[in-house]
């Protein structure tokens, strides 16, 4: 699917899962190198940036929004020329879709100066995409706050699975954005050569956006690890309390069982048995021994 947006001499072509015919059309229209055109037909595993005479070719992978996609990574190929920007993606990406709607409604073109080349258009789009990632991280942060409340309300066991799920999400985010720093630093160099020093500030801003996302992921991972440690400690404490109670019960019932077994022996002579109040005498002995064990545990602060 191909969509074309134009504004004051700037062209943005957005392709979703392009066909060979669509790739051939843009290759001829925008003089795209055949190597670049060939790479647009299939997803690429590794991000990269290449500088050509008439364009910059950039590949980035973004973490998928957890509510809208089953994949963990979403690839976007950017072809940035002097007066054109081409984006190629292989599935619906919410941030690109929203940016196209804003562009269509003239909210970007009316309220913003897009500059005199397509580098500025790329700048606004990449900011929108990092903003979408930040929104997802804010959602993860709200989930961590809810998990924290649940932990201290006594739901430690249920939160083990939730913390593991959040850990996996943050790991996916980190893996998806890990290579951005290197690629964007290379883009900083290539962009200065291609667009000139006047665009250098915007390239630095893009690098700063990536660094902010990286820092936010690191902070959330640290928070998640602290919550895991707290949750594990509370679980261990609760298990220790249960084990302590079971152990005390075992020690308390041991003398009772022992006495009951002794007086249940089928022997010719058994003290107290057959005498008046023999039942209550045995019960009294059990009570005395139980009290002795109780005070022993209390003295050693086991209770």
Précis, in short:
By secondary structure, this protein is of the alpha+beta class.
Number of strands: 6
Helix content: 55-70%
Strand order of the largest sheet: 1-2-6-5-4-3
For the CA atoms, what is the radius of gyration? 35 Å
Number of helices: 9
Mean pLDDT: 83
Distance between the termini: 72 Å
Low-confidence stretches: none
Output the structural class: alpha+beta
Output the helix-strand order: EEHHEEEEHHHHHHH
General form: rod-shaped
Written account of the structure:
- With 303 residues, the chain is of the alpha+beta class.
- It has 9 helices and 6 strands; from the N terminus they run E-E-H-H-E-E-E-E-H-H-H-H-H-H-H.
- It has a 6-stranded mixed sheet with strand order 1-2-6-5-4-3.
- Strand 5 and strand 6 form a beta hairpin.
- Helix 3 packs across helix 5 and helix 6 packs antiparallel against helix 8.
- The longest helix is centred in the last third of the chain and has 64 residues.
- The protein is rod-shaped and about 115 Å long.
- It starts with a strand and ends with a helix.
- The mean pLDDT is 83.
């Amino acid at each position: 699917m191909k969509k074309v947006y134009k504004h004051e001499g700037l062209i943005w072509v957005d392709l979703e899962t392009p066909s060979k015919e669509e790739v051939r059309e843009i290759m001829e229209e925008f003089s795209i190198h055949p190597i670049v055109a060939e790479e647009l037909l299939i997803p690429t595993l590794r991000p990269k940036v290449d500088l050509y005479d008439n364009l910059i070719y950039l590949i980035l992978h973004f973490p998928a929004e957890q509510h809208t996609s089953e994949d963990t990574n979403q690839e976007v190929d950017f072809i940035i020329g002097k007066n054109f920007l081409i984006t190629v993606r292989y599935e619906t990406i919410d941030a690109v879709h929203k940016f196209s709607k804003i562009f269509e409604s003239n909210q970007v073109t009316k309220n913003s100066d897009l500059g005199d080349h397509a580098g500025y258009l790329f700048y606004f789009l990449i900011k929108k995409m990092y903003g979408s990632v930040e929104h997802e991280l804010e959602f993860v942060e709200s989930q961590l706050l809810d998990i924290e409340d649940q932990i201290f309300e006594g739901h430690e066991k249920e939160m083990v699975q939730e913390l593991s799920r959040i850990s996996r999400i943050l790991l996916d985010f980190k893996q998806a954005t890990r290579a951005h720093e290197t690629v964007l630093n290379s883009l900083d160099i290539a962009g200065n050569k291609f667009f000139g020093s006047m665009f250098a500030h915007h390239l630095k801003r893009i690098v700063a956006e990536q660094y902010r996302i990286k820092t936010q992921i690191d902070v959330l991972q640290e928070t998640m690890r602290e919550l895991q440690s707290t949750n594990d400690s509370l679980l261990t404490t609760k298990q220790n309390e249960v084990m302590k109670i079971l152990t005390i019960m075992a020690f308390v019932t041991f003398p009772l069982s022992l006495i009951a077994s002794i007086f249940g022996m089928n022997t010719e002579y058994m003290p107290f048995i057959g005498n008046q109040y023999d039942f209550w005498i045995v019960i009294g002995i059990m009570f005395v021994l139980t009290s002795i064990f109780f005070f022993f545990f209390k003295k050693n602060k086991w209770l």
